[in-house]
Amino acid sequence: MDKQRIIIDMDDVLADANKKILENFNLANGMDLKKEFFADKSYYDFVHQYNYEPVRQKLFEPGFFRNLEVIEDAVEVVKELHEKHEVFIVSAAMEFPNSLIEKYDWLGEHFPFISWKNICLCGDKSIIKGDVMIDDHEKNLVSFEGKPLLFDAMHNQTLKGYQRVLSWKEVHQYFFS
Amino acid sequence: MDKQRIIIDMDDVLADANKKILENFNLANGMDLKKEFFADKSYYDFVHQYNYEPVRQKLFEPGFFRNLEVIEDAVEVVKELHEKHEVFIVSAAMEFPNSLIEKYDWLGEHFPFISWKNICLCGDKSIIKGDVMIDDHEKNLVSFEGKPLLFDAMHNQTLKGYQRVLSWKEVHQYFFS
Fold first, then answer.
1. What CATH number does the domain containing B34 carry?
2. What pLDDT does residue A1 have?
3. Of the four, A137, A168, B43, B122, which is 20 to 30 A from B153 by CA?
């Protein structure tokens, strides 16, 4: 495969935002749902029947994005992609101004091999170009001119029409096998 | 003219970084240069013969980007462009982590009509697509696939090969006359 320019999202692709969001949802609603619960239903349709506003508000609080866990195998696979292709981390962060420096610091901690030159914090990804985009949201993938890869997440289980990758192991297979 | 997607830089296009930088250069070197001094010479070749490091260090200090003046006529013309075209503000801010929130806040103060969706803080603009890019640096314009417009600045006086706009009045003429 020729050298590709790969555009990689952060939340729910590198950083496990959903794990924290589901904890906050359960806490706000006295429930104990697991992510597997959403395997056959529309996440947003479901949660908006419940007390969702406090879950959303948590996204604006300092520290939310800084303390997310790394998604399994992301560091190792992104490092290999970075060595053999050209990786840009592109996050739609602008809705959450607190998140700007937190995302920069988070990447510095967990992905120190990614230069500041290859980080982009934006509002709308329709101005981004590249060869491959790995993202969990249709709104980001839909206007992309290159190859879109839908990264599996609890909120996109019912979305069709994109090549889905279930894990970073599957992303590795896509590029290297 | 059809509706265009216009990518607009911040430093030395919307925000007068050079004014502050030249003040800092003069202060560090006991000089009193005006920007017109650079009309026939390469700014970088010149200043690097002098004490330039403290000037560069100031860029990393809190407050530098938050307190820049707005370039003449920028607000009025960008507002009109925003109403008739599609404007994205794209700044290569990532080298200066302090600047991320400062640039967000600065835009909120001076360009409140620009939504967070239309702001992008990146490291390298080669991943940005659009119809027109207004920028003062060749490194940003050179890989742009649309129409590049070089915004006149004291550090780009000797640069050839791009359509140069001397002011926001000239940008207005480009789009509306």
1. 3.40.50.1000
2. 80
3. B122
